[in-house]
Amino acid sequence: MLRKSPENIKTAPASNTERVPPGQFVTGKFPVLTYGPTPKVELDTWRLRLFGEVEKEVELDWQDFLQLPWSKIDGDFHCVTQWSALDNTWEGVAFSEVVKLIGLTAVAKHVMAHCYGGYTTNVSVELLMQPGCMLAHKHNGEELSPDHGWPVRLLVPMRYGWKSAKWLNGLELMAEDRPGFWEERGYHNEGDPWKQERFWPELTG
Ligand SMILES: Nc1nc2c(c(=O)[nH]1)N[C@H]1C(S)=C(S)[C@@H](COP(=O)(O)O)O[C@H]1N2
Ligand SMILES: [Mo]
Known about the structure:
Helix content: 10-25%
Oligomer: single chain
CATH architecture: Alpha-Beta Complex
Structural class: mainly beta
CATH superfamily: Oxidoreductase, molybdopterin-binding domain
Distance between the termini: 18 Å
Order of helices and strands: EEEHEEHEEHEEEEH
Number of domains: 1
Mean pLDDT: 93
Largest sheet: 6 strands, mixed
Bound molecules: the ligand Nc1nc2c(c(=O)[nH]1)N[C@H]1C(S)=C(S)[C@@H](COP(=O)(O)O)O[C@H]1N2, molybdenum atom
Shape: globular
Number of helices: 4
């Protein structure tokens, strides 16, 4: 399950090195990568829980979510299994807009994303506040398909894809960092594709 040695990772074609992080290969498709089955989510029972180190805990239903300010971003998507899908557009609600609803306590420094199906992943508040990080509902002009996280996935374009949690149903603000599903199982805590932060440093040497 764990791919460890950087020696085994071929570098991307030279012409793409500015767009494509080292060790990645461009695919024209948008593959599905999920651990386990696609959970069944329905809009009338969909909820997004915003909790933890916040001034006000909030639970959004679908109508609440639709009323938040929406934005659109362009971005590339890099999976740690080495495929990169370039030129995606995403539409949804910026994490920074969600923060306006809940307010952060002084010690809120980390976020655990929670999903239908039980998947989790951790990201820093500092990173999520950057432009491009959003709760996405549309990909390339269309609603996400069920396999890609419908109705809402987290999108963290500057990290490997496993940080972009599908079927998002909670954001937990935390004072201390905690590893999510893959971060507990050998994936790097940060996951910056430009630094090839694929696996725990102790696995790659
Ligand atoms: N809930 C959930 N989110 C998830 C995953 C998952 O297994 N469950 N897989 C992650 C991984 S490893 C990647 S690369 C991307 C893939 O997104 P895609 O299936 O839309 O291409 O989703 C991420 N988000
Ligand atoms: Mo991935």
